[in-house]
Amino acid sequence: MTLEGLLRAGRLSEHDAAGDETSRLLESAERALRDAGTDGLGADSRLGLAYQAIAQGAVAALLANGYRAATRDPAHHQLLIQSLLKTGGIPAGRVQFLEALRAARDRSESSGVPVSDAVAEEGIDAARELIASVRDWIQLNRPDLVSAAA
Predict the structure, then answer these.
(1) So what's the architecture of 10-149 in CATH?
(2) Burial grade of 106 (CB within 10 A; 0-12, 13-18, 19 or more)
(3) Neighbouring residues of 24: CB distance < 8 A, sequence distance ≥ 6
């Protein structure tokens, strides 16, 4: 579905992004990534922090495209990840991988399913790549937000 279709379905709302808004989100994502590297954190916590960074990057991309997800939607996190196909130029295979990380984090939080160290590290690497990609997309497609998102 297109972003416009999601808007008509009530899953998105229009939003005029302020430069400091995207900047704050990306800076927060980078803090979460730094925290994810803290010695002594378990894999569940590291993946949780990596996913926080992924979600914040997805929100920044959505805002830069003029939309905000309807948080009342129980699947809004899934929508954030899926929207990266349209908002950040992220390839479908990468979006599927980010979706798998979201699902692993959800299983960990809701059912106590443990996360392996390898999955946590993959999540951290994926978050780092996503934040860089979103910054690049903003610089290329929303130069009016570049100074705030740089």
Answers:
(1) Up-down Bundle (1.20)
(2) middle
(3) none
Chain centroid to Cα 130, Å, comes to 7
Strand, coil or helix: what is 70?
coil
Q: What are the structural domain ranges in the chain?
A: 10-149
Q: What is the DSSP letter of 145?
A: G
- pTM here is 0.92
pLDDT in tens, 31-85: 999 999 998 999 999 999 999 999 999 999 999 999 999 878 778 889 999 999 9
How deeply is 143 buried, as exposed, middle or buried, from its count of CB atoms within 10 A (0-12, 13-18, 19+)?
A: exposed
For residue 99, how far is the Cα from the chain centroid?
10
